[in-house]
Amino acid sequence: RGADGVRPDLAGRHVLVTAGGTREYLDPVRFLGNASSGRQGYAVARAALARGAAVTVVAANVALPEVAGARTVAVTSAAELRERVHEVAPSADVVVMAAAVADFRPQATQAYKIKKESAAPDSIALVRNPDVLSELVANRRPGQLLVGFAAETGGPDGGVLDHARAKLARKPVDLLVVNQVGAGLGFEVADNAAVVLAADGRETTIERSSKDLVAHRILDLVVEFPIGHGD
Ligand code: CTP
Ligand code: CA
C-alpha cells in the first residue's frame, strides 16, 4: 500500500483521461459549449495516480488547478481533443473518456466578430463531429480498456438507464459510467452518483458521494479487467 493507504493496482499502467467540455467557436469570442467542469475527470486522474498509474489528462477548457503528477494537455475544440487523444491512446492501457465532447460544430467559424448590425443569421449551420470514443473502439488494441461516460436525462421514449443501455449497444466500451444530469447532480456540482454498465451486462450502482470516491469506485471496476499486454 502507498503512503495514502491506496493499493497500487494500476502500477505500470498508463491511463489517459479526458476531462472538461469542448468549445466550438462561431467567431473569435463566441462558442457553443457545455457545462462540464472537468471535476469528475480530474478526480479519476488523481485516483489513478494514487493507484500507481502514469496519467495523461487531455483537458478541454477546465478551470481547475492541474492534477499534480499528471501530464496535462490542454485542448479547446472537439477536433483538437480528437487529435490529442489519438496521439496518446496507442500507449494507453486505459482510456477514460470523461470529457463532454461536442456532437456538432458550426459549419464555419467567422474570422471576425459577428456584429449586431450585420444581417441576423436565421440559423447556425452545424456539422457533425467525429465520435472519438467510437474511433477508439474501432482501433482498440488487445488489452486496452475503454471507459465511456454518458450524461443522460432520459426522455419521452425511456429513462436514463434505457438510454444508457442503448448507448452501450451502439458504442461497445468495457464500462459506461452513467450520470443522471439535472436535478442537482452531474455537471458543476461537488457530488456525483452513477450507475456503471459493463459490456457483460453487469450494472453497478455508485451511491451519491464525492467525485473522488466515485472515481475510485470506477477504478475498482477497471482493475477487475485483465489490462495491458499479455498479463
Ligand atoms: N464522445 C466522443 N466523441 C464525441 C461525442 C462523445 O468521444 N464526438 C464520448 C464522450 O466522451 C463520452 C461518450 O462518448 O465518453 C458518450 O457521450 P454522450 O454525449 O453521452 O453520447 P453520444 O453518443 O454523443 O450520444 P448523445 O449525445 O446523443 O446522448
Ligand atoms: Ca453527445
TrEMBL record:
UniProt GO cellular component terms: phosphopantothenoylcysteine decarboxylase complex
Residues given in the record as CTP binding sites: D103, K113, P130, D131, V132, L133, F149, K167, K171
This protein's pathway: Cofactor biosynthesis; coenzyme A biosynthesis; CoA from (R)-pantothenate: step 2/5; Cofactor biosynthesis; coenzyme A biosynthesis; CoA from (R)-pantothenate: step 3/5
Domain DNA/pantothenate metabolism flavoprotein C-terminal: 10-224
Annotated keywords: Decarboxylase, Flavoprotein, FMN, Ligase, Lyase, Magnesium, Metal-binding, Multifunctional enzyme
UniProt cofactor(s): Mg(2+); FMN
Biological-process GO terms, alphabetical: coenzyme A biosynthetic process; pantothenate catabolic process
Any GO molecular function: phosphopantothenoylcysteine decarboxylase activity
Enzyme Commission numbers on file: 4.1.1.36, 6.3.2.5
Co-factor binding comment: Binds 1 FMN per subunit.
Region: Phosphopantothenate--cysteine ligase, residue numbers: 15-231
Flavoprotein listed as a keyword: yes
Job description of the protein: Catalyzes two sequential steps in the biosynthesis of coenzyme A. In the first step cysteine is conjugated to 4'-phosphopantothenate to form 4-phosphopantothenoylcysteine. In the second step the latter compound is decarboxylated to form 4'-phosphopantotheine. Catalyzes two steps in the biosynthesis of coenzyme A. In the first step cysteine is conjugated to 4'-phosphopantothenate to form 4-phosphopantothenoylcysteine, in the latter compound is decarboxylated to form 4'-phosphopantotheine.
Family as reported in the entry's similarity comment: In the C-terminal section; belongs to the PPC synthetase family. In the N-terminal section; belongs to the HFCD (homo-oligomeric flavin containing Cys decarboxylase) superfamily.
Protein name from the UniProt record: Coenzyme A biosynthesis bifunctional protein CoaBC
Lineage of origin: Bacteria, Bacillati, Actinomycetota, Actinomycetes, Frankiales
